[in-house]
Amino acid sequence: MYIYQGEPTGKKGRPKMYDCKVNAYSFNMNYFTKKFSDKEMKIYSANVYCKAFKRDIKLAVAIFYKDSKELLWFLLIS
């Protein structure tokens, strides 16, 4: 799940911690930052919450290009 980055609402109760689920086929690029860019590869990174590990993890998306077309991508966590 993406970690909520907005301001507190000021309402009663616990503040919002997580925003929405990470979709492996369609990423919300508002949460990702570009770490590396080349004509053959781009790497984006974001801190997200993993329910299986019950902790925050760093998610990296490596996208490979060939002839300016998206060829394949990998998800890497640490």
Question: Outline, from the CA principal axes?
Answer: elongated
The neighbouring-strand order within the major sheet is 1-2-3-4
Helix content: under 10%
Number of helices: 0
- Report Rg: 15 Å
Give the end-to-end Cα distance, rounded to a whole number of Å.
Answer: 15 Å
Features:
mainly beta; elongated; 4-stranded antiparallel beta sheet; about 45% strand; about 80 residues
Quick summary:
With 78 residues, the protein is mainly beta. It is built from no helices and four strands.
Give structural notes.
This protein is an all-beta fold. The protein has strands at residues 33-37, 41-50, 55-66, 69-77. It has a domain at 33-77. The protein contains no helices and 4 strands. The chain is elongated and about 55 Å long.
Secondary structure layout plus pairing:
Blueprint: E1 33-37, E2 41-50, E3 55-66, E4 69-77
Antiparallel strand pairs: 1-2, 2-3, 3-4
